[in-house]
Design brief:
Layout (H helix, E strand, L loop, with lengths): L17 H4 L17 H7 L3 H4 L33 E4 L2 E4 L3 E11 L3 H15 L5 E4 L2 E2 L4 E2 L2 E12 L2 E12 L5 E12 L2 E12 L8 H16 L1
Antiparallel strand pairs: 1-3, 2-3, 3-10, 4-7, 5-6, 7-8, 8-9, 9-10
Helix pairs in contact: 2-5
Protein name: Lipoprotein
Keywords: Signal
Length: 230
């Protein structure tokens, strides 16, 4: 049994409401008059559970507010939130009987563009330390029960509607005795004074096949958020 992926829906429902959501922008999601992007703008741009799909909700367990999601995967430590950032986050989860989906949306809003550029460079430096392949033994603790797995990582350049940065695309395969996969995309993109860390993951139990719609889904989720900001 996967503690990480607890039972969740194998079929992807992450994009069922995005066609409507992409057009939901208003005055509170436009850049400020001084050219910088406000906290209010980013809070309005992040997706809500009901916009993603009817089975999505807010996770019951809170993440460490001082850390972002892991970029490299494996057993690597997630990076800390860069200094001077005001953080707006909207974590979402979809759990069912055959797998799980998660969406970690974290907007880092800085007082100026220079600080945002420094933060983006720092997170890129973390990505440059990622290995191409991690082999992790089984782990059984009080709060974690995960079979052995192999996780591959590929870092790609990314430009989504002028938000530029990179994405770490990860694929995890569990050992044959506990078939399952996990596909994760951690996008780190920035524009003006904002760095957006957008991580989508889908976990599938009792199958060795990855999600066939994963690549299009994470791009659509990210694209919806940045389109709202402009």
């Amino acid at each position: 049994m996967f503690t990480t992926g607890r039972a969740a829906l194998a079929a992807v429902t992450a994009v069922c409401a995005l066609a409507a959501a992409a057009g939901c922008s208003g005055d509170d999601t436009a850049p400020d008059n001084d050219g910088l992007i406000s906290v209010t703008t980013m809070r309005g741009a992040l997706l809500r559970a009901e916009e993603v799909g009817p089975t999505w909700g807010t996770p019951t367990r809170s993440a460490d507010p001082q850390r972002l999601v892991s970029i490299c995967g494996g057993t690597t430590t997630p990076p800390e939130v860069p200094p001077a950032a005001e953080v707006v986050s909207a974590p979402l989860v979809d759990e069912g009987d055959a797998g799980a989906q998660t969406l970690e949306q974290t907007a880092l809003i800085f007082p100026d563009e220079t600080l945002a550029e420094v933060a983006q460079s720092a997170l890129r430096a973390v990505a440059q330390t990622c290995l191409a392949r991690y082999s992790v033994p089984a782990a059984v603790t009080n709060d974690r029960n995960e079979p052995a797995y192999v996780e591959t990582v590929a870092i790609q350049e990314l430009d989504e509607r002028g938000w530029k940065g990179f994405v770490a695309v990860r694929h995890k395969s569990y050992d044959a005795a506990h078939p399952g996969t996990a596909d994760t995309a951690v996008a780190v993109v920035s524009t003006k004074n904002v760095v957006l860390v957008d991580a989508y993951a889908i976990y599938r139990l009792n199958t060795a096949s990855p999600s066939p719609t994963f690549d299009g889904d994470w791009k659509r989720l990210l694209g919806t958020v940045v389109q709202r900001v402009g």
